[in-house]
Automatic annotation (TrEMBL):
Pfam families: Self-incomp_S1. One of its GO terms (cellular component) is extracellular region. GO terms for biological process: rejection of self pollen. Keywords: Secreted, Self-incompatibility, Signal. This is S-protein homolog. Belongs to the plant self-incompatibility (S1) protein family. The keyword Iron does not apply. PANTHER family: PTHR31232, S-PROTEIN HOMOLOG. Its main location: secreted.
Length: 108
């Protein structure tokens, strides 16, 4: 018996100081393309999880000469539906826990 699909949403919010954020996310099946996100704005997308399991989205963030790559959503892990980008790095918000820092900016 196939397991039913579930609708889920992920968002990335730009909380940088006066900087445009470039967000590029993709899964195995979908490339969402690069999005320019203004300060204070969010980029979000909704999707149905894979009926066979294993839905996974990766994102790359870029601002000026700094980068962060991260797993934005993985079906079988604690779901991080909300991501917040600050000057010092990336923060995640699991559904039932407080916000915490996930990654620092890196220079290529």
């Amino acid at each position: 018996m196939a397991r039913p699909s579930v609708q889920d949403t992920v968002s990335v919010t730009n909380l940088l100081t006066n900087k445009i954020l470039i967000v590029h996310c993709r899964s195995k099946d979908d490339d969402l393309g690069g999005q320019a996100v203004a300060v204070g704005d969010s980029y979000s997308w909704s999707f149905e999880t894979n009926v066979f399991g294993g839905t996974l989205f990766w994102c790359n963030l870029a601002v000026q000469d700094k980068r962060i790559s991260f797993k934005a959503y993985e079906e079988y892990e604690e779901t991080f539906g909300m991501w917040f980008v600050h000057d010092d790095g990336l923060y995640g918000k699991p559904k039932h826990f407080p916000i915490f820092k996930m990654a620092a900016w890196k220079r290529p």
